[in-house]
Amino acid sequence: MLESLQYIYAPQIVNGLSIGVAVILMALGLTIIFGLLDVINMSHGEFYAAGAFISVSLMAMGVSFWLCLFLVPLFLIPIGFAMERLLIQKVFHYKDRHILTLLLTFGVAMVLEDGYKIIWGANPIKPDSPISGASELFGVMFPNYRLFLMAFGALLIFAVWVLIYKTQIGAIVRAAAYDKEMSSSLGIPVMRVYALTFAFGVALAGLAGVLLAPIYSVFPTMGRDFILMAFTVVIVGGLGSIKGAVIAGILLTQLQSISSLYISPVWSDPLVFTVMVLVLVFKPSGLYGGMKNA
Amino acid sequence: MRNPQFKAIRFIELLLLISAFILFLIGTALGDTFFLRLATESLIFGGLAMSVDLLLGIVGLLSLGQALYFGFGAYLSALILKEISPSFGLTIVIVAVASTALGWVASFIALRSKGVYFALITFGLAQVAAKVVYNTRSLGASDGMMGVPIVQIWTPFGELNAGQPGIFFVVTLVTIGGLYLLLKYFLSTPMGSMWHAIRSNENRLAYVGYQSKGPKQFAFILAAMVAAVSGALYPMLRGFVSPELMFFSVSGNAVVTVVLGGVGTLIGPLLGSVLLTSFKSIIGTWTTHHHIVIGLIFIVIVISAPKGLAGLLAKYYGKQDSRKGGE
Fold it and tell me: Which of A87, A136, A279, B173 is 20 to 30 A (C-alpha) from B83?
């Protein structure tokens, strides 16, 4: 019993956690963007891919992986900022802006994905793992990089939480989400907050891309498979809720990795999706409400 | 009652019908295969786009997974044609009935949610179905199914052979045209008014004593049926089906087609599909990266002309009318 826990479940749980951390980073970006702007960013997966691709190119130029962790989000922030200002703001004032912004970001995703094919080619690239080797934990060997990923990801998630809930910047963002007009009349530059928040979410996706590039291969459609899981997490957790994204992210990725011990991995996606449907049936707004209620 | 929108729709209907007629005449006279088959394909994907438009433009529900029903129709059609009988009528009837049932079941899942949640659930449903099909051996897994026989079409005037591109083009035109007329008919019924009302303001519908649930569900099932019947034509044209038919790119393409052609017009998506398919085939001879061009066009349209080509046409007629009124 103890042995099966040690040799069968523990590796699966750790694998699940390392994926979970990355999914949560993606989901955080999505949920923050939705919580504040009411925008479903369909191109989020493509920004995740952007992070991975840029890091691959930077590393090919000799930049170290650790520097990439800083540089890539720094690259993506102005891109996200410009995208919000130049594209999303253009349709933001229509009545059906939910659908229009979704379509718009979908168009951006199309362009980006094809752009990656032109620049980097369609074949998968596999970057070297920046941390090699493995360590023993509870008598089982785990790849060092996965352990690092979990620790770093957890730290990052905590930092985002602190930023949103414990700092003045976070208070401004939440105020803008809660009541746009009121915040604006109190002197908050709401439009700039919108654009910066969008850029922040995009940068988080890019960071997830850098972190996962050494584990999975890097290819133009890499964002598409990943985004479904991130969306599922966001929906189950409640659109706009940070706490919900973290809890749902851990639960669902654990469900996925543990269930794959018993059923073919092909069926673990439908299983996760069934959970999402069940949550929606009983609690249509997800486990936790929006950013406003926190 | 001849408002600009009505005029724009009538114009596009005539334009498509006349071009189809000319294409058929010239194509058959010259013994062409390529253009007739290309036009047939654009009609098939036009049918899918029409079903997206029924949900998006009429009822106000954005479906990002309509390829699920399209692919379902295509696979079921391929199975029937291969295993049971290469009969056109039988296949279409079975696909229509089965997809109605599938749409009914899916409607309970998808319609639990509204707005963006609806979009994401339909996206997820299709994604999961595509993954399952992609990994199911008995459905050919990633290879799909090949060797679908040429269909026999029974008509009162004798059997038609769909192996001839001209004949199958006309059959597709009649089928998709029939679906279009069916949807137009429903739009003229009280049900159609309810759909418009739901799109304008769903909450207010309850205040005037109507429930939005029934009409929404009906539209959803109808859209599933239209998409599936369009999909059923695909293996008849191409002779194979592959799991790519269920992928997000197909659903996404349908949405692009709808927005390009004109949301809420039903005929706009058909025009959009004809234009996009021809565009892809023209640009495809130069480069495989047509998505980047289409994506850019799409972004420009969403920002500057959210009503698409049909909307631009309606605007033109509107200006003309007001000029006449001024004289």
Answer: B173
- B62 near B263, Cβ under 8 Å? no
Residue with tokens 């133009």: A220
Which residues of chain A are within 8 Å of residue B131 when distances are taken between CB atoms? 266, 269-270
Q: Spelled out in words, what is the top-level CATH class assigned to the domain A2-120+143-293?
A: mainly alpha
B245-296 residue pLDDT tens: 888 888 888 988 898 888 888 888 999 999 888 888 887 777 777 788 888 8
Which candidate from B115, B289, B294 shows the least CB-CB separation from A118?
B289
Residue with tokens 């013994």: B31
With contacts defined as CB-CB under 8 Å, which chain A residues touch B116? 34, 40, 98, 102, 239
- Are the beta carbons of A98 and B116 separated by less than 8 Å? yes
**Better pLDDT: A211 or A225:** A211
Mean pLDDT of chain B: 84
- For residue B297, CA distances in Å to A41, A75, A98, B248, B327 come to 19, 26, 20, 19, 37
Chain B residues in contact with A98 (beta carbon < 8 A): 115-116
Host H or E run for residue B241:
none
In contact, B61 and B216? CB cutoff 8 Å: yes
Q: B67-79 vs B115-134: helix axis angle to the nearest 10?
A: 30
Is the separation of the CB atoms in A203 and A71 below 8 Å? no
pTM above 0.90, yes or no: no
| Cβ count near B316 (within 10 Å) | 14
CA distance A252 to A273: 9
Residues in chain A: 294
Q: Which helix (H) or strand (E) holds A221?
A: none
Q: Where are the domains of chain A?
A: 2-120+143-293
Query: What's the pLDDT band for A294 if we cut at 50, 70, 90?
Result: very low
For chain B, the straight-line distance linking the first and the last C-alpha, in angstroms and rounded, comes to: 20
- The answer to whether residues A262 and A88 touch, using CB atoms and an 8 Å cutoff, is no
A-B contacts at Cβ under 8 angstroms? 106
DSSP A133-192: SEEEETTEEEEHHHHHHHHHHHHHHHHHHHHHHHSHHHHHHHHHHH-HHHHHHTT--HHH
List pLDDT tens digits, range A24-73.
988 988 888 888 788 888 899 999 999 999 998 888 888 888 888 888 99
Q: Which residue has the tokens 């799909």?
A: B144
Kindly report, residue by residue over A119-149, the tens digit of the pLDDT: 888 788 887 777 777 777 666 777 788 888 8
Residues of B in contact with A103 (CB under 8 A): 62, 255, 259, 298, 302
